Request: fold
Amino acid sequence: MFTLIRPLAGILLAVFAGYCATVYEPLYRPDANLGNFPIWAAAISFVVGWVFLGGRMGRALWFSLYIGVQSVGLAALTIGAVMGVREVFILGYRRRYPEVMDAINGYFDILADWFGKALDRDFLILLGTGGLVLGLILHGMMSALERRRNDR
Reply:
């Protein structure tokens, strides 16, 4: 397998996640300022793209499209999980949770809140079509890179 596809997949997924994070901010709350959320989303998505998306490219076109959509979903779940832990620590240091079980319940409340607001139809269409386009672009790049490698 050509190894250049892994960093390219990570970069493309990170750029897409950064864009989606800026689109998500008004859905969270219209006056929300989530700080460096797009940077965190891009960094986490880069790792997901490198490990998951880039490692599975190069089979059939339908599989590349499937993996593109699946990697966008995995990146969204990973971003939600990491940012939920971050939020629990912030609220824990502010003494909002008196017990550990309250913090664990608060974590799942935060996840339900974040993912519930992401269930907007237009946002889900953006994620789905973005995953398909990522899979298509990376499949084309993988085919071109493999053809170039095999011509040598």
